[in-house]
What we know:
By secondary structure, the protein is an alpha/beta fold. The chain is built from 5 helices and 4 strands. The chain has helices spanning 5-18, 45-63, 65-72, 123-128, 134-152, and strands spanning 34-36, 78-83, 105-111, 114-120. Strands 1-2-4-3 form a 4-stranded mixed β-sheet, with helices on one face. Strand 3 and strand 4 (114-120) form a beta hairpin. The chain is globular, with a radius of gyration of 17 Å. The model has no long low-confidence stretch (mean pLDDT 84).
Amino acid sequence: MNGRSLLFDFQNAYERSTNRLWPLTPREKDREFLQYLEQREHAPHRVQLYRATAREATIDINASEEWRQWWLSGPLRALEFSIAESQRLPYPGAAPMQRGDTPTSVRMRKTGLTVTGTITPNLDRILDTDEPNIGQLVMTDMAVLLLKVHQKYAFGREMPEAK
């Protein structure tokens, strides 16, 4: 620990050991709080469109003052999420997209003040959705994750409506 990273190292150590945000500096106003961890896989066109739309929705949510105020009212630093694989699994135990009538599900885990989530959408539903309606499908699925985070952690504001 030396140089410019010293404060950052202290901040991380404090947050890990206390499970609270670092109190000595205000939370950055322009920091992205929602991060999409996109996988690169060969997938059907509509799945690729679904993933691209999730990336765009993430950018829009990060740019929204309403969503930012909601996020700042909570105790977390960031929310990172990925979307389950659509086809072959890259490693044993990886989450595949669901098939049949199964609804979208979300798995979450917390490490320090960052929540990592996986959205497991229904592949059949994605493939059956017309391209102009993919955006609504993505926002519905992302809302499942955001609502679960909202319900599990103490946010001081009501969650905005996903549009």
